[in-house]
Amino acid sequence: MHEMALAESVLDLVENAARADGARRITCIRLEIGALASVVPEALRFCFDAVVRGSLADGARLEIVETPGSAWCFRCAATVPIASLADACPRCAGAQLAPSGGSAMRVMDIEVD
Ligand SMILES: [Zn+2]
Prior knowledge:
- The protein has a domain at 2-68 and 102-112: hypothetical protein PF0899 fold (2-Layer Sandwich).
- Helix content is 27%, strand content 35%.
- It has 2 helices and 6 strands, in the order H-E-H-E-E-E-E-E.
- It has a 3-stranded mixed sheet, with helices on one face. It has a 3-stranded antiparallel sheet with strand order 4-3-5, with no helix packed on it.
- Strand 3 (69-73) and strand 4 (78-82) form a beta hairpin.
- Helix 1 packs across helix 2.
- It starts with a helix and ends with a strand.
- It binds zinc ion.
């Protein structure tokens, strides 16, 4: 399950940020997950609960903000919304799409004590 590796890398990132801040504990983590990032938010949440035990983020609230996917359609010469990388263009049904948004996962911010 790749969500476990993702949860661990998110934890590394936020723990380093919290330590650099001199924080004792992380109370909230806001994560942005794009619709095209191939991350299942519920699976990530489950893994996160497991990896944070005993860390600075033990008991932290995990807020997940899901952002929609979009792609550039060469035929329409326009940005169109898509829900997955396997989708065709909703306007022309063409497959010449280049994902342009919603393909990333990132930590937006954290709250510390
Ligand atoms: Zn199109």
